[in-house]
Amino acid sequence: MTVTYPRDLQYTRDHEWARIEDDVIRVGITSYAVEQLGDVTLVDMPAPGEDVQAHERFGDIESVKTVSELFAPVSGEVIDVNAALESSPELVNEGPYEDGWLITIRPSDQGELEGLMDAAKYEEYLGTLDG
User: Fold this and answer.
1) For the chain, what is the radius of gyration of the CA atoms?
2) Cα 50 → chain centroid
3) Cys-Cys with 18: which of 10, 35, 85, 105 at CB 3.0–4.6 Å?
4) Residue 4 per-residue DSSP state
5) What is the pLDDT at residue 4?
6) Dist. CA 75–CA 107, nearest whole Å
7) Is 79 left (phi over 0), alpha (psi -120 to 50) or beta?
8) Is the pTM of this model over 0.70?
9) pLDDT value at position 85?
10) Residue 117, helix vs strand vs coil
């Protein structure tokens, strides 16, 4: 089965996605990451107002299989966190690109977005992992 990834998003090698929404970036994990994790049981995220750095850990996501670190696709200030995940972490499994988003960041350097992959490049990258 070939999974296609939303074309309006940018992707990281750590399997996070970034959606540009005006002056903020909404961040989540890809369906590939969800598949690797299994059932998500807890999401640990920063508080609004905290600063994050591109490609550095901003939180953790726990599942029945493992605990994985979450990495910021861009540097900036955390504007919002998906509070619904505190009581319903399974939203990540049910809709990683919709209700399962994690945080929004106001980027401090828009140029960092250029270092992210589009959907085609991300799919190509995933092909190198499976082989």
Assistant:
1) 14
2) 17
3) 10
4) -
5) 79
6) 6
7) alpha
8) yes
9) 98
10) strand
Tell me the two tokens of residue 65: 């299989």
CATH topology of domain 13-112: OB fold (Dihydrolipoamide Acetyltransferase, E2P) (2.40.50)
Q: And the tokens for 46? A: 């920063």
The residue type found at 112 is E
DSSP string across 7-37? TT-EE-TTSEEEEEETTEEEEEE-HHHHHHH
**Closest Cα partner for 44 from 68, 80, 8?**
68
Average pLDDT, the chain: 95
7: tokens are 């074309």
Q: For the chain, give every domain's residue range.
A: 13-112
Q: Which residues contact 52 (CB under 8 A, 6 or more apart)?
A: 46, 58, 72, 75, 76, 77, 78, 105
How is residue 5 written in tokens?
A: 């990834």
E strand segments, 1-131: 10-11, 16-21, 24-29, 40-44, 51-52, 57-63, 67-71, 76-81, 103-107
